[in-house]
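User: I'm putting together notes for a lab meeting next week and I want to include a structural view of one of the chains we've been expressing. I don't have a solved structure, so I'd like a prediction I can at least talk through. The sequence is below, exactly as it appears in our construct file.
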Amino acid sequence: MSGFSIDGVHFTDDLGIIHREGSAHPISPGFRSSTVEIPGRPGVYDFGGRPDVREFELACMIPRNETLYGVQEKAREIARVLLDDYGRPKTARLIYDYEPDKFYNVRLVNGVSLERVVKAGEFTLPLTAHDPWAYSVRDNSDGVPTWGSDDVTFEYHYLLGNEETGDNTFTITADKVIEAKIRGYAVRPIFDINGSAGDAHFQLNGKQFDLPSFSNESWTIDGERYTVKHNGQNGMPDFSGEFLELLPGDNEIHIWGYGMNFDLTVKFRDRFM
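Assistant: Thanks for the context. Below is the predicted structure for the 273-residue chain, given as structure tokens.
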């Protein structure tokens, strides 16, 4: 049975925990449907669905040859990985051995009793990814991966030379088109802007946002969190337009304006179902 790691701790290699058959790794999360019932109308109006949380059940076993004291120490080591310094469940990265290029942000939920672990030697870790996506361990600022690096092995699915992982920082002094390639599902990138412009316009896949005149100032437009920072403060009142989306496949970000002299960094991380 393939193993797994949580926050960089491999449960088999580092803790000696056996990953048993029967673990649940769903191919997709559940989905929440948005519907409205209209009195007198058969059925409901369907406004579509969206991904819900993703549940994991990791079946594990503490080796039977451990002493009672050794089993208790294993239980404490497991708890230390899953809980923060105050003993509260923390959000951690779950990575399966058979898919080392992707991680899930998971947290321990109700249902585990370390006392029962000590008695039975077998237990199931119920973990929930409240954000149901699987994310690439590398973002587009990490550069093109090459064989022989410490964090990329033959089990990784990266395409060497893929343009998506090229230089993601640009100096903008004239109209420009920036290309970006998405391997997974649609993502909303982060735009970091530092410098000056009389005005600046950004367009991507039919959506656009505009920035007013600025001089030696900074902007951070975070589409995933729906926030705009202008010189570190709330910049939403000065922001006009929509948050942009990168769609699966090839994308072109169109930038134009006048008096432009700024550095632009476009950040994103591929995500998968």
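A couple of points you could mention at the meeting. The chain has two domains: 4-132, 163-272. The two ends are 22 Å apart (CA to CA).

User: Perfect, that's what I needed.
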